[in-house]
Write a sequence for this structure.
């Protein structure tokens, strides 16, 4: 019933939903929609201002390589291509953004694939939210970013808070406090969230054995994975897969 209503509503819309216009009034958030080739289809005024463009039309039809300088544009373009190719989004990515004119700032970025009626990724949408953390120096967040990237690259490994704190150059208490300030979660909760997010993406995207997904997401066995997954999501991994894949 709800799915039918959603499809009827989507079919009656002329153009894109006016989400970019909603985000025009939020100066600390960049919003965008891109097609499969990474070309901007919708942006908000914050992105226009950050990139020193005169209007939205200057961004539309162009890619991150066209708008952002050097390696930053290449990095964004590669990130976009991976999201579309894998059909898998990214969440809570701590990034240092460089803007024309030499200004820079830390952001939390979130991107999700946009799918057609057959479930194929045909583009992506995303937001980047400015971080305003009083007392944080750039080097502090740079070190924290290295620790978070280590987590993302090693989700299939045991991740100990003392080691993560060492990478960030912080005590365990300080590391936990930084994570709480960023994500409103303890460091332990944040690790669980990343593992469950990765598991959800794998379960929805393919037919890999659940035991294999458990190991890839850092669980020692399928039983402990299934127990924590159900506690967090409300469904068993198998039920979640059937639900998301239309079974």
């Amino acid at each position: 019933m709800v799915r039918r209503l959603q499809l009827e509503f989507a079919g009656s819309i002329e153009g894109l939903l006016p989400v970019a216009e909603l985000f025009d009034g939020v100066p600390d958030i960049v919003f965008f929609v891109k097609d499969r080739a990474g070309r901007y289809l919708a942006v908000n005024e914050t992105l226009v201002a950050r990139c020193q463009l005169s209007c939205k039309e200057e961004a539309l039809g162009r890619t991150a390589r066209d708008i952002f300088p050097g390696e930053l544009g290449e990095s964004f373009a590669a990130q976009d291509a991976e999201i579309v190719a894998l059909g898998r989004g990214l969440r809570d990515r701590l990034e240092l953004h460089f803007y024309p004119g030499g200004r820079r700032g830390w952001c939390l970025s979130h991107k999700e694939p946009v799918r057609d009626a057959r479930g194929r990724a045909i583009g992506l949408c995303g937001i980047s939210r400015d971080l305003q953390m009083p007392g944080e120096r750039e080097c502090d967040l740079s070190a924290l970013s290295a620790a978070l990237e280590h987590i993302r690259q090693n989700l299939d490994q045991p991740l100990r808070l003392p080691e993560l704190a060492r990478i960030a150059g912080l005590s365990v208490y300080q590391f936990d406090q930084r994570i709480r300030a960023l994500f409103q979660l303890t460091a332990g909760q944040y690790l669980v969230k990343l593992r469950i997010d990765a598991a959800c993406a794998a379960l929805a995207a393919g037919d890999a054995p659940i035991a294999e997904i458990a190991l890839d997401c850092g669980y020692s066995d399928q039983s402990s994975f299934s127990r924590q997954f159900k506690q967090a999501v409300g469904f068993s991994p198998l039920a979640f897969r059937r639900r998301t894949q239309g079974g």
